Amino acid sequence: MTARIIQVDPFDLVVFGATGDLARRKLLPALFQRDLAGQLPDAARIVGAARSTLSRDAYRAQAAEAIARDAAEHPEAAARFLARIDYLALDGVSDGGWSELATRLAEAPDRIRVFYFSTSPELFGPLCERIQAHGLASAQSRVVLEKPIGKNLASSRAVNDAVGRVFPEACVYRIDHYLGKETVQNLMALRFANALFEPLWRAAHIDHVQITVAESLGVEGRAGYYDTAGAMRDMVQNHLLQLLCLVAMEPPGQLTADAVRDEKLKVLQALRPVSAANIAQTVVRGQYRAGAANGGAVPGYADELGASSGTETFVAVKAGIENWRWAGVPFYLRTGKRLPERLSEIVIAFRPIPHSAFSERAGTIHSNHLVIRLQPDEGVRLWLMIKDPGPGGMRLKQVPLDMSFAEAFGVRNPDAYERLLMDIVRGNQTLFMRRDEVEAAWSWVDPVMALWRDSEDTPKPYAAGTWGPSAAIALIERDGRTWHEDANWNRDARLAT
Ligand code: BG6
User: Fold this and answer.
1) pLDDT tens across 98-108, in order?
2) Among 118, 226, 232, 239, which is best to mutate for testing ligand 1, by the most ligand atoms less than 8 A from CB?
3) What is the pTM for the complete model shown?
4) Which domain holds residue 112?
């Protein structure tokens, strides 16, 4: 099944921080994929901008390397894509290069103009000032902000104010790339295009929710940035809270940007605050020590960083949402680096049956679980109890109703950035965070960070390749629940058993 591709309108995309990791690993490959799919019009141009003095050809060579894996089979498309790319040496702190940028953009003054800030947030304000000073913010302009947007509520407000002085909110696209993942959007389809779940989607029927975003990698070459952020700012403040919002929000009247974002905001505002009185029962932070990952020995975080550090590489949270729908339903969140596998999933655990009509010989009756797997092996699985086939009386067994997207559709799953970049050009803000959402998320995170700062405790150690500190297991087991494990998710493994 092939989706119908609709070409977007011609655009000029200026990527600030064009020599950085994100541009190379994500933005250029995503743009190339969209070009390959026929979604970019001939006139679309990409201007890389960064501090380094590079010729256009030298930057094109970097871009060619960035898309090399996908380009191998499509040399003509790769040549067409690279021909779209230009490069200018400029930054937010000096005027050099800006008038050249102005000249390039003036060649097509009415075209959609996207300014993509793939830089550190301190530069967002200065970049906006230069854009304004050089008269580059046209009526058709959009500005894209990569996370982190600030380090706390105050700095996030300062960044948003600086950007807001030049661009109205309707032109600001704050990226949380988790919202561009196919399965995350499928969560909305599952909830709002099926009548089945909505009546059950509440405290009366749901016992608890788990959201896991696990990574097997360590901090790799990003220790410098990561050590100033930590898992709470890097993952929880944005990705995990956004996932929580999509699970918990009320059905919006329409799937328009503001209707969706209004509902997400209400969830963030209803989060139970973490305080000195409840932090010990609700938040666990950890840091990995040496251990094993991907079949080999790996060093601990402090060794990778080259210094001892109080930064957390793992967080588990028992969150609560104080409204009618979710009163009393814990949302257990966990994320970390150097966990046993790369795995992101949302588990909706329904309540147990109120009464069992079966004898003990039937076996344990497990409560129903709906598992939404974001990566890898995207899919949805609903765990049900059935009768074990054959004679031998009524023996019950837990089996999944299973849908793997790869099997069902047999298409390549686009990277989140592909969808998000095209949405920016199309002017659709639904999958981007509005200012008030980002600030509401910081308002919940800030007190936790302050309590950690003032505490004598340090992150609890865990060996690389394990599921975090034992306190994270205790966090959920204390409530008589366990973290979901689905060793058989991979269907080949399941078929073989
Ligand atoms: C980024 C974080 O936002 O998300 C990284 O800064 C993290 O630390 C990454 O590795 C995870 O994204 P994905 O799409 O690989 O799950």
Assistant:
1) 999 999 999 99
2) 239
3) 0.95
4) 11-146
